Amino acid sequence: MPTDHRLDVRKTYKLYVGGKFPRSESARSYVVSDNKGRFLANVAAASRKDARDAVVAARAAFPGWSGATAYNRGQVLYRVAEVMEGRRDQFVEVVSAGEGLSRSRASAAVDRAVDRMVWYAGWADKLAQVLGSTNPVAGPYFDFSVPEPTGVVAVLAPQESSLLGLVSTVAPVVVSGNTCVVASSYDRPLPAVTFAEVLATSDVPGGVVNILTGVVGDTAPTLASHMDVNGIDLTGAAGDAEHATELEVAAVDNLKRVRRAPANEPDWTAEPGLDRISTFLETKTVWHPIGV
Amino acid sequence: MAFEYAPAPESRSVVDLRSSYGLFVNGEFVDGSGHAFKSVSPATEEVLAEMAEATADDVDKAVAAARRAYTRTWSKMSGAERAKYLYRIARIIQERSRELAVLESLDNGKPIRESRDVDVPLVAAYFFYYAGWADKLHHSGFGADPQPHGVAGQIIPWNFPLLMLAWKIAPALACGNTVVLKPAETTSLTALLFAEICQQADLPSGVVNIVTGAGETGQALVAHPGIDKVAFTGSTEVGKAIARTVAGTSKSVTLELGGKAANIVFDDAPLDQAVEGIVNGIFFNQGHVCCAGSRLLVQESVYDEVLMRLKRRMATLRIGDPLDKNTDVGAINSAEQLARIRELSEVGEAEGAERWSAPCKLPDRGFWFAPTVFTGVTQAHRIAREEIFGPVLSVLTFRTPAEAIEKANNTPYGLSAGVWTDKGSRILWMADRLRAGVVWANTFNRFDPTSPFGGYKESGYGREGGRHGLEAYLAH
Questions:
Q1: How far is B391 from chain A (nearest CA, A)?
Q2: N or C: which terminus of chain B has fewer CB atoms within 10 Å of its end residue's CB?
Q3: In this complex, do B452 and A282 lie within 8 Å of one another by their Cβ atoms?
Q4: Are B264 and B363 in contact (CB under 8 A)?
């Protein structure tokens, strides 16, 4: 027996729901290949039931996450960036294989993803000051408006940018206190699963981010029409206007806040604005009496 | 001994009603091509005027006029000039306030006390407020050079005809959009009087267009490809239909829809003040208020006391002639709405809730419904879940603050809520947990142009009022 060649221990790529890593309840998986068609892994294929379970987990996590102090949410998300940095090599490997990038370009994408997480983490305790207001009403009231998270948000993560795009869509949703169910890139799901492992080993409470790998067409309609989902980001449906419109129509059943799909996947390297955060915020106005 | 109130009617002579009205397109009154319909006074069923119905063709002309005005005039004008037009409009509204108030009460059925003291002053205030934004938009937090959408299609309800018009038109124009507005079919008269005000202000032709008609007219407006932005206030059902219509387009949408607000009374609340607030919350504007406090949640320990005082107060409400200055509760806006209120009230009884109505004599003609309270209501009852949009209050009880929150949030709506307590920290604790866009503490149904208003969940999306209200009319 040769002793200089060690057989590596492969990873099982599973879903991430409620802080745990279940297989699909359907017991289905699908083959994920690199951009040259070479086998990479069998990845769990989420079912509609998995999507519903993920919504239940996200809803259960909402009171705690939205009720945490903004400072705490910022700290937790910064911690995610720290743990991502520690897993840098692993991310580079799966981004490079999935997106067909050279190691140096994959490296740059991972760097950006970590930096993007840091950027969004810093917003947690600034949103209320930038987006809120005191309102000088004509009467004896202290009147103020504060941004609040919308609730449970479904995120169709970008199909092409498997890590930077993922972080750029998930971080703005959760930084304000929303919880989410993410449908990852179908062809390039491995960075999403590794990202789930980062979340599980940082301080993000289980259920705040739930990640489903598999056929987006299987899970997205369930998420779009789910009556306990409050918003949906259709970014991952970029370029498929017909599918995006179907999902937007389904989302009307409970008047979800919808971020429409762009015609093409955006350039994720550009500095983001606040709009990905503010799409999934509500404004609450409180009239407090003034008197002796 | 009891002193009776003598009649104190406001004179109608200030209003110059025409026998028929057209549409307001490109700065002129024009005939509609559809079937004319009648606008009746809900208090007497008297026909006030014949209204034109705008067909899809008419809507098309109005949208074309708005587009021309947008490209040729309004989008090229400086913000400072737009501001001055809006200030002019605000001033004319103040100058013609009595006329506007009388016509509003005549057409809508709301008491003159409210149209005179609440609606019309607020209408002027919203125009004043947004006028000042027109040349300061780059300071509003929506980018260094925020741009208008273009042409806005706006559809408003019949409960606050002029006020909803102001909420829609003032921010739209301030941001540089032009508009095509459709008032509700039962209350179009003040919108057409507003069109005259636009003429008096020399507002450039086509900046404001008004098309009258019912659902079909609204549908034509929403679906029109020349509309860049849709703003709607009305029922959740119609709001959803609009959201489906615009799905897959690039139109931006804001929806201000229904509600089933909890008005929560704690045992330490000043009870007389709370009772006034409960009455204002549900009987203001005959309960035709999307943010009405239609679910009263009373802490068990003061339930008997609150109900006793509430009924005593309700018995003193004066129901009748909307133009009488002593009237507290006016007419239900339409026969159709009255039928819905009656139906849901019957369902309330059939499901086992106990009904009590204020002992008052209702006029023989017109559409009337006595202020009514249901007790013994459970969360499963339809009268606790569905928006009645009338003077009907459902009463539930709670023991702890946590239970109050649980019950208050147990609704697909999330527009408003009220909290009555003497304890400031509890107000903020409650406000933090209520999933509603507006929380009133020790008050209810307050509105102000600086204060953002709008719902959570199925009460719609987008905000009207304040800096936040600009966002709906800016592309960014």
A1: 24
A2: N
A3: no
A4: no
